[in-house]
Amino acid sequence: MAALGDFQSDFQMNLSAAKRALGIDFELKEKQLEALESLYNGNDTIVVVPTGFGKSLIFQLLPWLMQGKFKRADPMIVIIATPLNSIMHDQVQSLAKRGVSACYLDITGSSGNTYDYKR
């Protein structure tokens, strides 16, 4: 069994790599770190924080964080459900500006955008 210190250093190392991949050069908030660590540990996680707190950053970092954990060549896929089409659209636009492939599917199933994931 790995020691707690080993886990912490692996988590911190993979988090640093994930932040670099997205060009994030600032410190995360405590609740963001708690959520990422919980997800990293494989826990079901609910994050309840105010609008504008930075929830999106949690799921934006997660593919690269888990890429490091599982030693994969590519970032892992994350599926997000949101209550509003406008939120999905904004998130896809934000990720595209960072060079991240993302897509969404709205309730009609026709106005979202998709992409082919190449293995």
From TrEMBL:
* Signal peptide, first to last residue: none
| A Gene Ontology biological process term | double-strand break repair via homologous recombination
Task: Establish whether keyword NADP is in the entry.
Answer: no
- What would be one Gene Ontology cellular-component term for the protein? nucleus
Q: Which family does it belong to?
A: Belongs to the helicase family. RecQ subfamily.
* Alphabetical keyword list: ATP-binding, Helicase, Hydrolase, Nucleotide-binding
- Could you confirm whether the keyword Nucleotide-binding appears in this record? yes
Native source organism of the sequence = Mizuhopecten yessoensis (Japanese scallop)
Q: What is this protein called?
A: ATP-dependent DNA helicase Q-like 3
Give all residue intervals belonging to the DEAD/DEAH-box helicase domain. 31-101
The molecular function terms of the Gene Ontology recorded here are: 3'-5' DNA helicase activity; ATP binding; four-way junction helicase activity; nucleic acid binding
